[in-house]
Amino acid sequence: MKIHAFGVAKEITGAAMIDFPVDETFVKVKDLKNLLYRQYPDLINLPSLAISVNLFYASEDTLVNKHDEVALIPPVSGG
User: Fold this and answer.
1) CB–CB of 22/1 below 8 Å?
2) Long-range contacts made by residues 74-77, C-beta under 8 angstroms, separation at least 24?
3) Alpha-carbon distance 41 to 43, whole Å?
4) What Gene3D superfamilies does the entry give (predicted)?
């Protein structure tokens, strides 16, 4: 599964695009997050981490297919 990483998530993963292995055809967002936390433990320290699937914010129970467009969206600040 290819995952886009933005902001501090990009810094933590070390790349703007990561190729993340997922065994199942479909996985829930909450399970994907847990897999990501194991691979990149510093993601756990973020106050929030949104996941988008096919350009829409996803809930924890959203199913993700390995061919979907997935992105990690950390908290942002602006002024």
Assistant:
1) yes
2) 74/6, 74/7, 74/8, 74/9, 74/46, 74/48, 74/49, 74/50, 75/46, 75/47, 75/48, 75/49, 76/7
3) 5
4) 3.10.20.30
64: β partners: 27
Structure-token match 């959203």, residue found = 62
Task: Provide the residue range defining the domain that includes 25.
Answer: 2-73
| One-letter amino acid of 31 | D
Pair type for strands 2-5 and 17-19 = antiparallel
Domain count of the fold of the chain: 1
Amino acid at 20: F
Q: How do residues 11-67 score in pLDDT, each as one tens digit?
A: 999 999 999 887 777 889 999 999 999 999 999 999 999 999 999 999 999 999 988
